[in-house]
Design goal:
This protein has 245 residues and is of the alpha+beta class. The chain is 28% helix and 30% strand. It contains 6 helices and 13 strands. A hairpin with a 2-residue loop joins strand 8 and strand 9. Helix 1 crosses helix 2 and helix 4 runs antiparallel to helix 5.
């Protein structure tokens, strides 16, 4: 069984107070998902957060109406949600399900993602899909958008006590794997509810995002790409924490 909790911090902006991220948790079907609307659409007057929220609502609907009552296929969920989403904009997406045989099945599109922690060690982190620096693969209705079949399909065996930390790029651009581990460790060791662990990780990511002198994964990737971003990256931050029990 996967017990989950989440915390969301929207970037402070008057034009889009809900932010660009969206997520769901469905304990009934043992599924979680996160989407991050691509903010570049704002230059065209489009709120990509609307696309992300519609995609997540449709993903949850697809999970709840999945014909197989025990084995939810995240690729089928993403494909159905994509077909049902008609809003303008585009979004990254990550959908994760726990199967009865303790196999974690996931699909990941773009630079949202997740990491798997076992006995205090990160044993897996989903890779980023991007065309070039800061341009992730993204689902959308425009001709240049990616399609669900291009998403990474990930299958991992999990054990009781394992912890999954999923999130949008607002998390992973500001905190490294080791920083996420360090921040989450106390709550995990104390057996806190996943929502409390998600809160502590999101707060730390937010603190770093506001630090203009912080050394962050996004800053390091920017330097490697020949660009000059310094410090934290202010962004919407979604964190979902799931414990395998």
């Amino acid at each position: 069984m996967m017990l989950s909790g989440s915390f969301y911090i929207a970037k402070d902006r008057d034009s889009r107070p809900q932010g660009d991220d969206s997520h769901f948790i469905c304990e009934e079907k043992q599924a979680i998902g996160v989407a991050d609307g691509v903010g570049g659409w704002s230059r065209q007057g489009v709120d990509a957060g609307i696309y992300a929220r519609e995609l997540i609502n449709n993903s949850l609907l697809a999970v709840l109406t999945h014909p197989d009552t025990t084995q939810v296929d995240p690729m089928k969920v993403l494909t159905q949600a994509f077909r049902m989403t008609i809003a303008q904009g585009s979004s990254t997406a990550c959908i994760i399900t726990l199967q009865e045989d303790n196999m974690l099945n996931a699909v990941n599109m773009g630079d949202s993602g997740f990491m798997l922690i076992r006995q205090g060690v990160s044993i897996y982190k989903s890779p980023i899909q991007q065309h070039y620096f800061n341009c992730p693969y993204q689902l959308g209705n425009s001709a240049n958008s990616s399609k669900p079949w291009q998403a990474q399909v990930i299958k991992l065996a999990v054990e009781p006590g394992d912890v999954i930390i999923a999130g949008s790029d607002g998390l992973f651009d500001n905190l490294s794997e080791s920083q996420i581990l360090e921040t989450a460790a106390t709550g995990i060791e104390q057996g806190l509810h996943p929502e409390e662990v998600a809160w502590s990780v999101a707060q730390q990511a937010y603190h770093i995002s506001m630090d203009k002198e912080a050394i962050t994964p996004f800053m390091q990737a920017s330097i490697m790409a020949g660009q000059g971003h310094i410090g934290g990256k202010q962004d919407d931050i979604t964190v979902i924490v799931s414990r395998i029990i």
